[in-house]
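Aim 2, interim progress: modelling of the zinc ion-bound target.
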Amino acid sequence: MTNDEFQRWFAHHRTCYPRIDAWLGRLKGEYDSKAVLRNWYKALQDVDLEDAMTATDAMFRGDFAEPREWDQHPSTIRKSAKGFAANRRTTTFESKPRFINGEPVYHCRDCLDQGLLTVWHPQSIKAMRDGTFGGTFTEYTCAVRCTCDAANKYRWIPHVFDDRKMVPSAYRPSDEDRQALADFVNAVPAVQAWNPADFNQDEGF
Ligand SMILES: [Zn+2]
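Predicted structure of the complex, ligand included:
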């Protein structure tokens, strides 16, 4: 993002977390708050504005834990935003043929060698189970690592694909993806499906 885009993101972020202003205010005299924000910008420079906005919304909504310290906000937003970008990439290759002259084009038929899979977010699984799916903030997907070697470059993504708990979907879900989610929820006992509260933990999605 450009510096202007950073300003737009920060304007949005501070409306979600107005106490950032008080924190920055307290730094005055001791630290240069402009220099602090310049470092925030540096941390987010390689992130798309739209992904950073989405990450702020997701954090505000409680999809993942808010960091304890204000100065950890940029790294947390960056990690989440990068996940959205990676998530989007998993959908762009799906139009390629999977077989050429009967030979498989990819080593891994789960992720098609991308190392990532898009799955329904635990919040959506919960909504489907609770009968609130389709309402506001209920239709989300997220990226998880594949179990194959192609996923080695995505070690920073905490969750590994597990078909006992996760349901693949396109980044922008189709009706078939919604049906697959409904089928999964009907077939799998509630205890076995993800608990959204566990989403931020490194283990046990
Ligand atoms: Zn794979």
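Residues 73-92 form the longest helix (20 residues). The radius of gyration is 19 Å.
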